[in-house]
Amino acid sequence: MHIGMIGLGRMGGNMYKRLSEAGIKVTGYDRDPAVSDVASVAELVEALPAPRIVWVMVPSGDITRGTVEELGNLLSEGDLVIEGGNSRFSDDFEHAKVLSAKGIEYVDCGVSGGVWGLKNGYGLMVGGDAKNVERALPVFDALRPEGPREEGFVHVGEIGAGHYAKMVHNGIEYGLMQAYAEGYELLAAKDIVKDVTGSFKAWTRGTVVRSWLLDLLVKGLEEDPGFSQITGYVNDSGEGRWTIEECIANAVPAPVMTAALYARFTSRQDDSPAMKAVAALRNQFGGHAVTSAGPTSGAGAVK
């Protein structure tokens, strides 16, 4: 089998390697000529046997849309595009529409596994027609973890369903990470706890909170005890916001995922304007002390 892959960054590059190690021939294109097999998308298309399969693994939004449109002008009827980036599920409808007008098939695939996917395999959530999913199964089987197919791969439903499932997956991930993080802060704050890292490590076997995320937290603590080498600034890549928007649209209560997303917003504020307002209000109605700003900020309180 021979496929094309556009986007050879951290995820795409490792997926390229995993596919190659499984015996699937991959021709890759990336804007970085140092990692690219060909000089252009057009050259990639020319290198593939018909009917072609091209996996798109580039940043979501305008870059993905532009890549899909470019492929629409280069591919032929019966070719297949698999979009595996972190796109919003609603973008899949537009991508499929652009390609279907030219007889080009489309499948969306939510991919989880991060930098560990090369070794462990990737969790794959696929949306699209069954015939197109079946056609690409050798690719999905090469990328997914070893073992039963249903443990690491799912054909979720129609176009858009794969990215929708990945969106919800990431919303859950936000909540899990925030819970572990809050537990870490509480353990670290209590002077009777002398081994915070050891506490988390003890939970990795036999407890109900064990998980791969917990394993990774332990690894992070062992590499940087107290997380002294990093700041608490946390970005979000979009899926968390989209999950909450979908919860609102479907009247699904999601207090944990919502709070986790807002916690990330809080992490980016050096001095929260909202909390300044809360402090001022407490002072106004109850005479509660407030902390002065300036060079002595944090050193004491004034009324």
Describe it for me?
- With 303 residues, the protein is of the alpha/beta class.
- The protein folds into 2 domains: 2-158, 3-Layer(aba) Sandwich (Rossmann fold), CATH 3.40.50; 167-267, N-(1-d-carboxylethyl)-l-norvaline Dehydrogenase, domain 2, CATH 1.10.1040.
- The chain is built from 13 helices and 9 strands.
- The strands form 2 sheets. A 7-stranded mixed β-sheet has the order 2-1-3-4-5-6-7, sandwiched between helices. A two-stranded antiparallel sheet has the order 8-9.
- The longest helix has 29 residues, at 161-189.
- The chain is elongated, with a radius of gyration of 24 Å.
- The termini are far apart.
- The relative contact order is 0.08.
- Residues 162-294 form the 6-phosphogluconate dehydrogenase C-terminal domain.
- Belongs to the 6-phosphogluconate dehydrogenase family.
- It comes from Kineosporia succinea.
Low-confidence stretches: 296-303
Distance between the termini: 74 Å
Number of helices: 13
Under CATH, the topology of the largest domain can be stated as Rossmann fold
How are the SSEs ordered, and which strands pair?
Layout: E1 2-6, H1 10-21, E2 25-29, H2 41-47, E3 53-56, H3 62-74, E4 80-83, H4 89-100, E5 105-112, H5 117-120, E6 123-127, H6 130-135, H7 137-143, E7 153-157, H8 161-189, H9 196-202, H10 212-223, H11 239-249, H12 255-267, H13 273-286, E8 290-291, E9 301-302
Parallel strand pairs: 1-2, 1-3, 3-4, 4-5, 6-7
Antiparallel strand pairs: 5-6, 8-9
Helix pairs in contact: 3-4, 8-11, 8-12, 9-10
